[in-house]
Each structure stands twice: as structure tokens, then as C-alpha cells.
Amino acid sequence: REETSKQESGSVLTPITIELEEHARYRVTYGVRAESTREAGVVADVSDLNFLGRGQTLGLRLIYATLERNARLYWSIPRVRQTNKNLEFFLETRREEQLTVTSTTEPDEEMDENGADEDSVVADTQEAWAQLTFPWGKSSIHRLYTVYKRSVTETTTDSGVREKTVVSPYSGWQVSFDTGERSFFETSTDRA
Known about the structure:
Blueprint: E1 26-35, E2 38-51, E3 56-65, E4 68-77, E5 86-103, E6 116-136, E7 140-157, E8 160-177
Antiparallel strand pairs: 1-2, 2-3, 3-4, 4-5, 5-6, 6-7, 7-8
């Protein structure tokens, strides 16, 4: 940008050039993961860091493993209505499978070579989550959230299939304290 200004006697004008590089709008991350109670799997995350051209983040995270599949869609809106409040939404669907071995004493039931009846359990879960995060004072960060979770567990045995559905809506509040000199939420218009 060029500006014309009147030069006072004895003053020198020095042109300044500032070059800025904008952060990449799209991001793809991928990798592997391992947990102590599960097998290894792969994870991928695809994000639009400037969704709708407003600095919002829209992303999709996928996890795939032998016994687990997970997809999470998330949307983050920073500085809602030019304030220091952040709003986030998550939609997630997850399928987990496991093979459980339960012992039996019934002589007429089928058993494996170790003398146990094998059951397979599949859990399908859908979850919707909304949260509002904001500072209160100089060092505390508050998070209000509400969650709707629905789980369907299907157990298959030699004697048949049992299905159990659990719906659990809940809300919560969390407070944490920031010991840093400058809070993540601080803006030039913040007031103590």
C-alpha cells in the first residue's frame, strides 16, 4: 500500500515493505496409532482452516483398525460475534468390535478347544456434542457443553443375538486455570 504524506523539513521518508505468507487453508494429517488394549490402526484428519472464508475450521477425522472404525465431523467457530468466546460442534459415529470369551459349565453347549463359549460383541455409538468456551477473569477458562449419545450393543452367542440400546443426554461445565502470561482468548478489546 502506498501512502502520500507531506514531508516536514529535515525529516526523511523510508519506504517499508512487509511481506506476509498466509497459512495454508487446507490441512491433511495422517499416521498410525496403537493402544495398550487394542491393535494398531491408522488415522487421517482433513481440515479446512478457513471455512466460509471466516477463519472457522471444518474437519473430518477417520480412524480405521481391525476392531474399530470411527468418523468425526467437527466445526469450530472462534471469537463468536467478535467476542472472546469459541463455539464448537462435533458429530461422531463409532463401531467397536471385540471377541469375548466366557466360561461355561453347561455340558451340552458348544465349547472351543479351551472349554469356553465364544461371544462376539459389536457396539455402534453415535454422539453429538456442542460446547462454548470462554475466559472469566484473567486466568480461568470455562467450558459449557451438552452431549447426546446413543449406543447400541449387539452380543452374538451360539444361543442367539441380544441387543441393548442406551441413550444418554447430559450437560456439563468445566473450569480450568491458565498460568501463562497471556491467555489464548485474550484480545485487544478484553476488559479485566
